[in-house]
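Input record, target 12 of the design panel.
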């Protein structure tokens, strides 16, 4: 029945259910589900019911290119995960002690878009690795200096990347400019402050909408 084919297609698009799972639900062969989705999806697209293809970004370079193509602002930050203390006698044992929480940890750099959707998470590094050092090791400076004109917001842990990337990595102004700052610094600070404020407002709005939707569905 067409209704079953339509329902299977909508479930697949909305919940990313695999063809195998849908075949079990509807009691048909997998090939039947594949054929139904292939036939129904163009009909939905003709009527404005489309879904963006999944974004699979495997490298930081792909993330930068994606932000450039979509015209979005990126947000980067480091995140730490506590790990078991390395065995005694291990030469690099002290490298895992985080400078933030003084505990053994590994860290990754996470990149999201302006709405807080995670685009990429880097391989881990020992907890003692500074955020800015990690970003440099990942090649962020080279990608931003020679890549598309994409603005990436970062916290004070990435101060210094702004100059190295031609101003494309936006961080809070350096402490040495807090007094008697030159005009160009004040102008840059105001632009950066507004960019950060807009990003945070977008994240809060997105989270509040998600919370409200979840509450209404309960």
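The sequence produced for target 12 reads:
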């Amino acid at each position: 029945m067409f209704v079953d084919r339509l329902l299977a297609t909508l479930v697949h698009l909305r919940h990313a259910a695999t063809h195998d799972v849908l075949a079990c639900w509807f009691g048909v062969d997998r090939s039947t589900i594949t054929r139904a989705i292939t036939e129904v999806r163009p009909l939905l697209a003709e009527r404005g019911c489309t879904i963006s293809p999944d974004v699979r970004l495997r490298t930081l370079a792909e993330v930068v290119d994606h932000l450039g193509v979509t015209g979005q602002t990126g947000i980067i930050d480091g995140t730490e995960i506590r790990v078991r203390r390395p065995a005694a006698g291990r030469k690099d044992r002290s490298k895992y002690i985080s400078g933030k929480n003084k505990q053994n940890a590994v860290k990754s750099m996470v990149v999201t878009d302006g709405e807080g959707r995670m685009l990429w998470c880097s391989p881990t590094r020992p907890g003692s690795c500074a955020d800015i050092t990690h970003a440099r090791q990942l090649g962020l400076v080279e990608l931003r200096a020679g890549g598309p004109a994409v603005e990436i917001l970062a916290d004070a842990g990435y101060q210094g990347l702004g100059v190295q990337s031609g101003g494309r990595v936006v961080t809070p102004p350096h402490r040495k400019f807090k007094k008697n700052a030159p005009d160009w610094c004040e102008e840059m600070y105001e632009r950066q402050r507004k960019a950060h404020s807009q990003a945070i407002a977008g994240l809060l709005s997105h989270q509040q909408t998600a919370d409200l939707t979840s509450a209404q569905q309960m």
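The longest strand covers residues 74-82.
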